[in-house]
Amino acid sequence: xxxxxxxxxxxxxxxxxxxxxxxNAHGRVQAGWLLHQIDLAGATFAERKAKGAVTTxxxxxxQFAHPIHVGDVVSIYADCLRLGQKSVTVKITVxxxxxxxxxxxxxELVSTYVAIDAEGRSRLI
Length: 125
Known about the structure:
Blueprint: E1 14-17, H1 31-50, E2 54-59, E3 73-83, E4 87-97, E5 103-115
């Protein structure tokens, strides 16, 4: 049975194709584009755990193991490392599927989000 039909299959928080508008003047997909996608995916995951709005407070250092090419399908996965009274710490993994079908892990990082109220103040989860 295909992974897409398996209920135990890991599902990405965000999946998108790297497009030419994500590139720099040299035709390479920019790290800033990927960082934006990572923050969107991580915050979405953290909001589900916190049952409301969150804000990013920390992202650890990370390295890119491979470049992302235009046309790659980028999948961003999230796992909860810690659910605190006011914060959610998330492990984020980025994978890319090349047009050839090859799958590569691009990077992994840990990001922390704090639950906030309507006024932007931290709140209990």
